[in-house]
Design goal:
Elements: E1 7-8, E2 13-14, E3 19-20, E4 25-26, E5 31-32, E6 37-38, E7 43-44, E8 48-50, E9 55-56, E10 61-64, E11 77-80, E12 85-86, E13 91-93, E14 101-104, E15 109-110, E16 115-116, E17 121-122, E18 127-128, E19 133-134, E20 139-140, E21 145-146, E22 151-152, E23 157-158, E24 163-164, E25 169-170, E26 178-181, E27 186-190, H1 192-197, H2 202-218, H3 222-232, H4 237-247
Parallel strand pairs: 1-4, 2-5, 3-6, 4-7, 5-8, 6-9, 7-10, 8-11, 9-12, 10-13, 11-14, 12-15, 13-16, 14-17, 15-18, 16-19, 17-20, 18-21, 20-23, 21-24, 22-25, 24-26
Antiparallel strand pairs: 26-27
Length: 258
């Protein structure tokens, strides 16, 4: 299942049924899980840990050292979960001594020319469309979607189930469950379609709408809005998740509707 035209280090660990096509290079200290397919012209550097049944398309470069001037050659990794698809010319860089690894979860789709910088943490079922890029130390929650040509600053957090419209420049944290768009990036409602597809009930969707109506529509002062949410919305896991995310956002969160 390995092309004679591929270069695979004898010190790489390959699971059962791995396919490696012509002109791909697999370096020392790489682990590739069972059933994963590596298309032609893929380069996987030391420190890559790739799960089962992934598919990596031509031109992808995984676990190359980070573009961080503070990097001093420390041993770091890239960890990719199961069933993740990495399309043409995606780049995923190793971590630094901040996190020691860059992670991409299970069942993700990284489309053409996506860039994931050092120390990023991407959850499960995340979609990043073509030409999107994450600067270092970003965190992306489960089921988040970044449309094409989105770009983030360093240390940005994007909450679970969030939807970021194409071409957005992400300079503030994006809370869970919301849609955001425009320049500067602004709240544009909640991701109700995605939530219902994933089994959220009408009651849960209404709760999320009520919380964000207070935070982003009715009030301009975030601290005051959070106090109103605590006073008027019954406690629940969803309420706690949203409040915890916003209260922990030292970079601030996206703008509300003006």
């Amino acid at each position: 299942m390995i092309s004679p035209l591929a270069h695979v280090s004898p010190n790489a660990t390959l699971g059962e049924g791995v396919i490696i096509e012509a002109f791909s290079t697999i370096y020392d200290d790489v682990v590739i899980g069972a059933g994963t397919k590596i298309h032609p012209n893929v380069t996987i550097y030391p420190g890559a840990r790739i799960g089962d049944n992934c598919e990596i398309y031509p031109g992808a470069v995984i676990a190359v050292i980070p573009q961080d001037l503070k990097f001093e050659g420390e041993y770091t990794t890239v960890e990719i979960g199961d069933r993740t698809v990495i399309r043409e010319c995606v780049t995923i860089h190793r971590g630094t001594k901040d996190m020691w690894k860059t992670t991409v979860g299970n069942d993700c789709l990284l489309m053409t020319y996506v860039h994931v910088a050092h120390d990023c943490q991407i959850g499960n079922n995340v979609i990043m469309a073509s030409y999107s890029g994450l600067s270092g130390h970003c965190v992306v929650g489960d089921y988040a979607i970044l449309e094409g040509r989105c770009g983030s600053q360093q240390f940005i957090h994007i909450g679970a189930h969030a939807f970021v419209a194409g071409g957005s420049l992400i300079r503030k944290n994006v809370p869970p469950y919301v849609k955001c768009a425009r320049e500067p990036i602004t709240y544009a409602g909640i991701n109700s379609v995605g939530l219902r597809r994933r089994g959220y009930t009408d009651e849960q969707v209404r709760e999320i709408e009520d919380i964000y109506r207070i935070i982003f529509v009715q009030n301009s002062h975030v601290t005051k809005s959070l106090e109103i949410v605590k006073d008027t919305i019954p406690d629940s896991p969803i309420r706690r998740e949203i409040l915890s995310f916003i209260e922990a956002s030292d970079k601030g969160v996206i703008k509300g509707l003006i």
